[in-house]
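User: Batch of two.

Assistant: Item 1 of 2:
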Amino acid sequence: MTAVCRRCVSVATVVAAMTMSVGALAESGRAAYYGGGRTASGEHSGPNQLTAAHRTLPFGTKVLVTNIRNGRSVIVRINDRGPYGRGRIIDLSIAAARELGMLRSGTASVTLARQ
């Protein structure tokens, strides 16, 4: 791992620690992405929107998602239910996955902080 990657991981760790200390929702786990379509909230989600699916958060909740490996972050709006795949905590739109740099790998280790 290069010095740049270590610094990015350190920044992601600090961000996660800060969000936990202020009492915001803080979760960590695996994320994947999906192409969009009709959502559980009733809206039609396109691949260019910064949206996500979460099992329990209310629709409309904004969440800061941080890729632990590269430190990149994006704020998404919850508009769907899921993920239903084992071991995942959030499903992201393609646009959000692109912002996090996880399109090639398909999944990433992330932290979530409610905004």
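Item 2 of 2:
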Amino acid sequence: MRRQFPLLLIILFLLSGCAHVISKDIRSHSDLSLTLRQVRQNPDDYKGKSVVWGGDIVQTINQKDGTTLIEVFQMPLGWRGEPKETLSSDGRFLILVEKYLDPYIYQKGRKITVAGEILGEKIKPLGEMGYKYPLLLSKQIYLWEDYYPRYPYYYYDPWWGYPYGWWGFGVYYHRHYHH
């Protein structure tokens, strides 16, 4: 048993970094099978239901009453709740946050995951048409770390291939995080 204890601790430590970003309690009270496409057809039928959705932020608007409205381009979520890099989407939705959020932090292009209660719909202009946005009252928001795409950084390594005598260039991929 003593030998298994450190192994168990290591496994628990590694698994703790793989948890979903929305709390288990909130997810247990949410309808995870309810899609944006279903809700967009008739938002009033789903008022009061809780969902977990995510995507890319389109814009963040601070309102006169001190609340914040976030417009999101929906994307399917991965197993941890991170929006997947894909072009498939069921449309857009709005998140109502009952406090001030800085638009510099919650800026266009950032990935976001939200658990919220469906309040209904809000019609806003999108181009020259009126777009029906499902409206969520946020219960929990997770803003994903923003980073620049990977690009190759070329470097000269005179010891590449040592001891075989090959000289050459190597490629190093580096992630740049945006702060």
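Helices lie at 4-16, 24-28, 36-41.
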